[in-house]
Amino acid sequence: MPFYQFTVPTGDATLDHRAEVAAAMTKVHAEVTGAPSAYVHCSFTEVAPGSIFVAGEPVTGPRMVGVIRSGRSAEVRGRLLHELADAWCEITGLAKKDVAIFLTEVPGANVLEDGAVLPEAADDPV
């Protein structure tokens, strides 16, 4: 169920290491949450430089939005954020200050995968 969507300016190291980054995100998510790695999705969208803004000003660093099932503790979400960022930066050479990760939570009842509506996170590790 987890879906990690990267928005990356052209020329950023993340694009050169997509497969490695996707494998690392999968590994981190599975280790931190206990979810099977077969359910982790990653997608990369390349955008022109000057397409990402913070406070109305262009920034050069990539962004990631992670959609995860609701019900994880604040401790698990915090660990997930830091371990995802650490793995991403280790692979790409980016500084942690130059990436941004946003987690959004959705109830399992809002997800259909493999033909089934997912149970809630508290009931199942997916």
Shape: globular
CATH classification, class level:
Alpha Beta
C-alpha end-to-end distance: 7 Å
Number of strands: 8
| Count of separate DSSP helical elements | 3
Category from helices, strands and their pairing? alpha/beta
Encode the helix/strand succession as letters: EHHEEEEHEEE
Q: What value does the average pLDDT take?
A: 93
Query: What characterizes the major β-sheet?
Result: 4 strands, mixed
User: What is the CA-atom radius of gyration, in angstroms?
Assistant: 15 Å
Q: Write the CATH architecture name.
A: 2-Layer Sandwich
Q: Uncertain regions: pLDDT < 50 for 5+ in a row?
A: none
Identify the CATH homologous superfamily.
Macrophage Migration Inhibitory Factor
